[in-house]
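User: Hey, quick favor. My workstation is busy. Could you predict this chain's structure for me?
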Amino acid sequence: MGELLRTPAENKSVGQWLLDNIVTLIFVAFTLFGFFVSDNVSLPFFLSELSSRIFRNSFLVLSLIIPVLAGLGLNFGIVIGAMSGQIAISIVRYFELGGISGLLYAFVIAFFVAALCGYFTGLLYNKTRGQEMIASLIVGYFANGIYQFLFLFVVGVIIAVPATHPMIKPDGIGIRMTVDLVPVKSGGLKYALDDIWTMPFVYALLVIAVGIIIFTIARYWFNEKRGEGYRNNRRSAAGNILLGLALAAVSLYSIAAETSLLMVRRVPVVTGLLILALCIFTVLITKTKLGQDFRSAGFNQHVSQVSGINVDQTRIIATVISTVLAAWGQIIYLQNMGTLNTYNAHTQIGMFSVASLLVGGASTSNANIKNAIFGTILFNSMFIMSPEIGQSLFGQALLGEYFRTFMVYGVIGLALGLYVWKALKQSKAAALKED
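Assistant: No problem, here it is.
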């Protein structure tokens, strides 16, 4: 009976586990290697940079989960959502709206723009069934052309704007390459979300540790009470509790001994709460009828259609949700950056977000919140350490920058290659079994 109740992870051999997690292990090893060879990266600096990047990027990475569940694969098309967010930011900045109210206006405008774009993108995915990832790349390039035309020509030629506006180029046609969002204290959007409420890093770490422990115990207890103890994994629960206790011990020691961790940059609490809200939304939506439709369509579209599920509509809804979330994620990203790189800020969003999800252990057919958060941590750790490794080993930080690009495309290529190899292996095994 014990054998039957084991999870798939427990039944896997060590070799299979290593193969399944090779991308994640490479990034863990790379980060540890960076600490080993570099003398210039202090722990407070690393944690400051890492926490800033996590809160800046997590929302975007989480927006990829629902399309994966719905069978759309890795939605590189979130770049369209990013452009929608930038359009909203540009409108708000043009009318010089700032602070929390300006941020809310940006979220509302982005919702409608992204929902419309997501609807048409979903229609395209339904026409390119089975090739959604390639279609999402191409539609992203196409949308970028429309975006460039809008900001370079329409603004100033078709839509009259004053050349004296700080966003507009001196000749009165098009928007400047870089737009300053102005600090929130001056009526702008810079840190409009992050500065609402901040908390020292070690205190935030303590809150997270307590949250992990309480959540793990509560989930275990509720599963037992409802007679769903088979869902409990004792090893996983014990590991989560030990992790929570370790984080709590580190934070309490740092507070009591006033260690260097007190120098780590303060954490934006409201931004963290929005990320947590998105995690909860993702979990809850999978328990609804719509969420079950997502899973059914992702598992087998033909069976879902026969069962009465409108697969095309379900896929469109998944695309709309992902695009809207990506638009909001880009707004969160930009208010943290403080500047809008008008024509380039969105270009790598899709690649970086997909790579982060894959680094966390996701695949084109399976992704969850743990993959997104863990992948964001590891991927951004690599971004921080790359220049330092290049400087330490070769005396040129620029080599680390080149290595970043190599790792981004390498991770995507390796993950997709492994996925195809596993699919072929499974199909061969199934064919041999039938014979």
